[in-house]
Fold:
Amino acid sequence: MSVDLTGLKVMVIDDSNTIRRSAEIFLTQAGCQVLLAEDGFDALAKITDHRPDVIFVDIMMPRLDGYQTCALIKKNARLSTTPVIMLSSKDGLFDRARGRMVGSDEYLTKPFTKDSLLKAVAAHTASQSTE
Structure:
C-alpha cells in the first residue's frame, strides 16, 4: 500500500525512545514531517507551536497520561478537530472505551507495523481534507 503522505505533520508522543524512533523512521520514509514528544506536557507545548495534522499518543506515560493528553487536545478549540490516535500495548475493551470517552479517533495496538501506522495516518488525513 503506497499512500502519499508527503508534507503531513505527524506527532508521536511516547515515553519509549524505541517506539518514537521506529514511528519516526516509518513516517519519515512516507514523506511526513515528524514531531516527537516524550510525554503529554512536552507534547502540548509543541502541538500549539506546530499544529500537527495527526497525533499519536501512548496511553501509559508518566506525569500526564495519554487519556489526559488526548482530553486536553480535544478541549482546545483550535485543536479539537485534530485526529488523535491512541497507542497502547494493551488491547482491552476498557482501554478502547476510555480512549473513545476522551475523544480519541482511533486505537492502535503496539507493536504497530509500518503499514498499520501509515494506514491510520492516511485514514484520518483523507477525511480531514474532504470536509
Observations:
- Helices lie at 17-29, 40-50, 66-75, 93-101, 114-129.
- The first strand starts at residue 9 and ends at 13.
- The CA atoms of residues 74 and 103 lie 6 Å apart.
- Strands lie at 9-13, 33-37, 54-58, 84-88, 106-109.
